Description:
binds adenosine-5'-diphosphate, six-stranded parallel sheet, Rossmann fold, binds magnesium ion, 37% helix
Amino acid sequence: METAFSQLGLIDPLAFAVQEMGYVEPTPIQKQAIPIVLQGGDVIGSAQTGTGKTAAFALPIIQRLGGHGALRCLILEPTRELALQVEDAFQKYAKFTDLRVTIIYGGVGYGKQIDDLRRGVDIVAATPGRLLDHLEQGNCALDQVEILVLDEVDRMLDMGFLPDVRKIVQKCPKARQTLFFTATLPPEIEQLAGWALRDPVRVEIGRQRSPAETVSHAFYPVVATQKFELLQLLLEQTEFKSVLIFCRTRMGADRIAHRLQAKGHTVGVLHSDRSQRERIEALEGFKSGRFEVLVATDIAARGLDIAGVTHVINYDVPENPEDYVHRIGRTGRAQHTGDAFTLVTEEDVRDARSIERYMGLAVERKKIEGFPYVYSALFDEKALAEATPPKSTSRLHRGVRR
Length: 402
Ligand code: ADP
Ligand code: MG
């Protein structure tokens, strides 16, 4: 078969699989990374959100593994939802091979996972905590792993995950291929993770640390007491199909969800205090259109590929500037367009500025005509900036749970 994908060196079973998924042209990260991963070297790949990074590593991995054997490929993901999504992508890309793919993640029973591991799998997508449980119980071993992927690698190496990730990496053979992928690559990645890599090749697409061009985004200054009112007006004024609303805390997410429900919206809620069944229900309900609104914490900020999210609203400014790029990247995926609104109160001015510094661009401030704004110093940001020194954004001082 002669397609744009086979020209990258991919064999027919893979070219067929992507054709079935409707892919015609490889994306830029796929064009560049696939031939390098096929050769077996380590890669640090970065490209904006929604530009097909999963296939950029999955397709050449499947080709390298060839046919069914032992557990030879491990992909680590920061959330259960993302592990599910990546496992599903591998299943589809590997459809015309006899490779076996499974998922290891927390919040569900051990039975099926143990059965799958016993029966023999080639590719495992996992969240670190549950994988370590299985390793400790002797349900699986990583001594045959040939390819290790850290997806959302900057998140996997931050304080919350690093100890677990280190333990897992140590259980993999030293002679292996290691692949890092993310939309937000810290410049110091090699210092941070040199211990996991061997002569990595960097593949970088697009302006680093910036949102996809398909997302238009703006800040909406407002006093804290008017946030919900402004949110409601934003929802009224936009013709959204599905809107993802981010809150900083789990309690905050519950509160906003209840208030929106009381106003007649259909709302799903996704955060780490909910059971795995509730998390899946919320996400599936949002994907299917049963919920027009999904209220979430940063657990949903990264990687989730939800078709048709027309709007992202940051009810709260994210704590870490890179999460802004990830959050708004939940819309405008795969060349669709999207809008992102961020409510900024007086307390958020510093964080809002760190976001702009991080991306290296100024974000437009917008006011909504006809909204009964209560005046605050917020609307005179220069004066406010002088009163608030910039905050340190060291990546080593982060919370664990989101
Ligand atoms: P990223 O990891 O870069 O955020 P994903 O791998 O989740 O992006 O892919 C985003 C979406 O783009 C998915 O729905 C995926 O199926 C789709 N996609 C990936 N590659 C292609 C392609 N070559 N052509 C069309 N759609 C693609
Ligand atoms: Mg991804």
